[in-house]
């Protein structure tokens, strides 16, 4: 059992209008994994949290696509703008320690290097790294094959 499985249970119950248990599960995720993964966030199919999701913080209004791998100690949240929450596309690898902050769109088929700070939109098919994050390479193949071999 890891944080993503608990999230899925809480999301399922919340979508069925069961009010108390999803909040309880959110608290269990925090206690067991030191993570905030709200059941109101949208996380796509086949997405995973590395190391069970230790230290992961996801904003409650964030949308995360399919086949996204999120490393430990990652923050996906808003900046001071209350409407600005991140949107993560499909086939994305988010390395350990990454911060994705504000009204940011991360495209499809993207690799984000460790400890990068993403504050601006990221195009499809690239590798980004640094503080602030910059495109360091354009890629022309699907990273999904790489991701399924990692985890």
From TrEMBL:
Keywords: Transferase. InterPro entries: Hexapep, Ser_O-AcTrfase, Trimer_LpxA-like_sf. Pfam families: Hexapep. One of its GO terms (cellular component) is cytoplasm. The keyword Transferase applies. GO terms for biological process: cysteine biosynthetic process from serine. GO terms for molecular function: serine O-acetyltransferase activity. PANTHER family: SERINE ACETYLTRANSFERASE. This is Serine acetyltransferase.
């Amino acid at each position: 059992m890891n944080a993503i499985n608990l999230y899925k249970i809480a999301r399922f119950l919340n979508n069925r209008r069961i009010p108390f248990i999803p909040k309880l599960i959110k608290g269990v995720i925090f206690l067991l994994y030191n993570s905030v993964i709200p059941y109101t966030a949208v996380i796509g199919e086949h997405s995973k949290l590395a190391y069970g999701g230790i230290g992961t913080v996801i904003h409650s209004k964030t949308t995360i696509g399919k086949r996204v791998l999120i490393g430990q100690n990652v923050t996906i949240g808003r900046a001071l703008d209350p409407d600005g929450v991140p949107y993560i596309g499909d086939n994305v690898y988010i390395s350990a320690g990454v911060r994705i902050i504000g009204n940011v769109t991360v495209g499809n088929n993207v690799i984000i290097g460790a400890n990068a700070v993403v504050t601006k939109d990221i195009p499809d098919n690239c590798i980004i790294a640094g503080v602030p994050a910059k495109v360091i390479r354009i890629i022309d193949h699907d990273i999904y094959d790489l991701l399924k071999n990692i985890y």
